[in-house]
Specification:
Family: Belongs to the serpin family.
Region (Disordered): 1-37
CATH architecture: 2-Layer Sandwich
CATH topology: Antithrombin, Chain I, domain 2
GO molecular function: serine-type endopeptidase inhibitor activity
Helix content: 10-25%
Order of helices and strands: EHEHHHEEHEHEEEHEHEEEEE
Structural class: alpha+beta
Number of helices: 8
Mean pLDDT: 81
CATH class: Alpha Beta
InterPro entries: Serpin_CS (IPR023795), Serpin_dom (IPR023796), Serpin_fam (IPR000215), Serpin_sf (IPR036186), Serpin_sf_1 (IPR042178), Serpin_sf_2 (IPR042185)
Shape: globular
Protein name: Serpin domain-containing protein
Length: 371
């Protein structure tokens, strides 16, 4: 199932660090140029999907995440990394052939391109830094985070974990339109900063599904399990992929167009992922160890990553799609044309793309739409 966004018709304690006034801000880049990070982001998205989908705990479970949100947050983190820590972050993201300036300017441009809403579509993305009271990050890091990643900063007292949890969850809930409300459960009292990224998407179909055609249908989770779902129906042109073949060699080169009569389930899914282990398997090892070098973030304190958590929510009905994602990084002290009838009553892949940038906003696999 493929969805293109172009086709689908404040926190009380904010404290800005290093923000320029509107008249001081440099002019935005042209919308016509394409950020150099885009193909690398797509490659990272599919590499991460393969890692997540082949993990033993993922068997039979729904997978849904925002690769762009993860890339944005880790790229902002790289602003404060140096040496091998920086190299591993860039290598994991697929940026080995790019300079830091190319990456940062690419995201500055991308945020501008994504920041658009229309009558049939709403798309918002942003970043934040939740900084411990009394902890002073390097000024250049704060200025670059705000300039390139639209990273607004606010202070939090991590020595009071329960209060800090409430404040951060309140911020995330506000930015995700209350679709993600209690992402953070606990906090380490040694935490000094949390990097936050969020993406919110809501799109209406130009030609919605007919509600009267929605009917109960069997969905086959696997050979031995079936569940009853509400199935929507329509005939149109869609992006469609054979999942078994696609999953084996999934990449950004496998997008094709199909035309068919479509039966797709009405569903809502949510996925929560702890990414520490996966990112280390992909090569980002040093950032989670005592050898981490975040001297570009703090000159006075030795920092390391303790958590990288991601949550994404997807809701699909007859009118369109609503999707949301948030990611937190916790730092602590040391198709050719075919015509056929297609019934999506088996596990399927789902993508939400931004048509103006070709960014993969969200992707995943629905094994059981009732969970």
């Amino acid at each position: 199932m493929g969805v293109r966004s172009g086709d689908w018709a404040g926190h009380d304690r904010f404290h800005r660090f290093g923000e320029k006034s509107p008249e001081q801000k440099e002019p935005r880049r042209s919308r016509r140029s394409v950020p150099q990070t885009l193909p690398h982001n797509a490659d990272f998205a599919f590499s991460l999907y393969k890692k997540l989908s082949t993990h033993p705990e993922a068997k039979g479970k729904n997978i849904f995440f925002s690769p762009l949100s993860i890339s944005m947050a880790l790229s902002m983190l790289a602003l404060g990394a140096k040496g091998n820590t920086h190299s591993q972050i860039f290598s994991t993201l697929g940026y080995s052939t790019l300079t830091p300036d190319q990456v940062n300017e690419g995201y500055e441009h991308l945020f501008h391109m994504l920041g658009h809403s229309q009558e049939a579509m709403q798309l918002e993305a942003g970043s934040a830094l939740a900084v411990h009271e009394g902890f002073k990050p390097v000024d250049k890091f704060l200025k670059d985070a705000q300039h390139f990643y639209e990273g607004e900063a606010f202070t939090v007292d991590y020595s009071k974990p329960e209060v800090a949890v409430q404040e951060i969850n309140k911020y995330i809930a506000k930015k995700t339109k209350d679709m993600i409300t209690d992402m953070v459960k606990t906090l380490d009292p040694q935490t000094v900063m949390m990097l936050i990224n969020y993406i919110y998407f809501r799109g209406k179909l130009e030609d919605p599904f007919e509600v009267s055609l929605t009917h109960e249908f069997d969905f086959y989770v696997n050979e031995n399990t079936k569940v009853t779902v509400d199935m929507m129906e329509r005939t149109d042109q869609f992006d469609f992929y054979h999942m078994e073949e696609l999953e084996k060699q999934i990449s950004r080169d496998h997008f094709k167009n199909w035309e068919e009569k479509l039966f797709v389930t009405l569903f809502k899914i949510s996925a929560f992922i702890s990414l520490q282990e996966t990112l280390q398997e992909m090569g980002m090892v040093e950032a989670f160890s005592g050898a981490a070098d975040f001297s570009g973030l703090s000159e006075d304190n030795k920092l390391m990553l303790s958590k990288v958590l991601h949550q994404a929510v997807l809701k699909v009905n007859e009118e369109g799609t609503e999707a949301d994602a948030a990611l937190i990084v916790e730092l602590r002290l040391l198709s050719g044309w075919l015509s056929e009838i297609m019934v999506l009553n088996r596990p399927f892949l789902v993508f939400i793309l931004d048509s103006s940038t070709r960014s993969i906003l969200f992707m995943g696999k629905v094994n059981n739409p009732t969970e």
